[in-house]
Sequence to fold (314 residues):
Amino acid sequence: MRVLKETLFFTLFQIIFCPILAIYLVFYGPFTNIKETFVTSAMTTLRHKYLAKLFLSDEEIEKILEKNRAGIEIEKQQDGEVVVSKRDNNIEFVMIETKKFRGYLLIVDNPSRISVGTTDGLGDRGMTLSQIVKKYGAVAGVNAGGFADKNFTGTGGHPTGIVIENGNILYKDDGNKFGIVGFDDNDVLIVGTYSLKEIKKKKIRDAISFGPPLIVNGKPTIKRGDGGWGIAPRTAIGQRKDGTVLLLVIDGRQKDSIGATLKEVQDILLRYGAYNASNLDGGSSTTMFYDGRVVNKPSDILGERAIPTAFIVK
Fold:
């Protein structure tokens, strides 16, 4: 009986004490990088902001976010730096595995094959990536732009920013400037913030809104910190100087793949030769379709999430 009581006491002690100790070490311990990663992860996940606000003031949270945002330095993209010379129809699929996360990379030689695909119900209801890819008869794709989840219904049809498909503006928010990720009529990846006038002058053929840019003119934009967005599932796009396109997704919020920081995504794209690159919508939207199936493991318990836009490979 005594042994049983001691075992129960020890078990209860572990259940109660260990979480309290872990919380204390995260928020008040000596390892500030752990606290900052936790805060940036929580504050960039709409459903979990309360996890940071339970233990830190709004002022402390803002200081942490600002510190990490300050590490991003974005130059203006230079015209004529990327000259598309690769037009082969090869697609290479690469697995990326680390102790922390699992990723998937598509290397597409011909950038003219990349375009924006949209849901049938743009502005109202979304479609899954699989449905969008099949709608266009494409061979591959990743989720692309951000969207507003109106009334938390999860329909995924209302994009944010701007959506351009085949030279036509299908949607745009009110405002003078848009953070765009897309291709001009020379099949060059354009990333950054542009006015509607600049977008038309650059002859953008396909684009969506998201960010931040991760690589501009061959230089990483994240100079210090982890990018300020914490750890999460990620989707990104990049282009080499010869025109080759890189489509990257990283699984997250899973025991065998917790996700990546923007800095880690940037480092992968640099390693594979990206000259310009941008972050795309991540989290539970992160999905890659290739070879007739979804190749990654979306973090949403229901599987693929409804989205408004995708970058597809025709």
